[in-house]
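Lecture notes, unit on protein representations.

Consider one protein chain, 405 amino acids long.
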Amino acid sequence: MKIRSITYFINPGWPLNEAKLRKAGEFLAHATAVFTSAGYEVQTTRLATTPFAKILNGKVEETLLFARKMSEMLKQIGVAYAALGPALIESPKSYSVIPEAIAAADNIFFSGEMANKTNGISLQAIRACAEIIQRSSSITPDGFANLRFAALANVKAGAPFFPAAYWHKDEPAFAIAVESADLAVQAFENTKSLEDGRRNLISSIEKHGQVIDRISKNELSNTRFVGIDFSLAPFPDDAHSLGNAVEKMGVPKIGLHGSLAAAAILTEAIDRADFPHTGFSGFMQPVLEDSVLAKRAAEGTLTIKDALLYSAVCGTGLDTVPLPGDITADEMSPLLLDLCALALRLDKPLTARLMPVPGKKAGDITEFEFGFFANSKVMKLESEPLKSSLAGNENFALQTKHSNA
């Protein structure tokens, strides 16, 4: 298991408060040293800000300058990446500025709200997010820029995984995101029963979670600790593949029936484990970041509908999904709408990080040159533009399902 990111939450102000940012850099350097000395590899350090539209006091036309200034500041303070928060449903103009800002700085991430409990589901925001994805797909020839944008449904502040990370207070804080799919693989390898595997996984999560918690509260106590997102994030080899963990549990190929039950069992094991939870803390299914998911998607065994179905019992949603390069915003919007419906009806945070690949059609091989990706094939999206009332601009509420028992 590794620490994917130490994420520091901050309101950097505008113009940027360099003293606050340098303090953040110092904290992250110290935290990295502390966790490294405890035996953990720290892959990245990151900043996540309050939503950029609020920082700019609604002057979203300054977003490009804000992104450039933050990008320059990151290099000065030794921090790898920053997420500048989501475009907000109550600020419709905040969506359209994102593609240009993404293009201007390759270490800056953004997101966009589609649904939350205050505003309900916004059909206008869904379409705006789909348009960001479509526009961002042409920033680079391979469509890679969409790695730095996610559409959000019911995602609260304090999640350390990018691009969904953002904050909501002036007081700084930090959280830990882990890369821990290998714990699930090891837990179910050569086990005689489901209960043994689940017990193994819970034990491993608690062992690491409690060490990280103790370090965070004792050696880093000068900054508020939000918690750990123990989503079972993968690395693109089979030893660190959550798809491999599902298959170790007994599903011959992830995507076949039984996969949803496996996803539910793994996510529930995280829920059972005793550690300070934050963010998604669930089954993570990034198609292009997981060697087995990428393989099953290329075979056609794992489909977008499957991944959406598993989102009902897992923690994150749709991630690094390769789509045809000519897909339109109107064709992506129904998928995003379905994700929002799941998020609000089941009261869970879900995201969509979709990656149209220019010049590619469904079934074509992807050709990304990125150490955290396993290439696959472009996936078919069975979708057509919405019509009638679902094609409007309104917001509508969707209450959480309550038990009738």
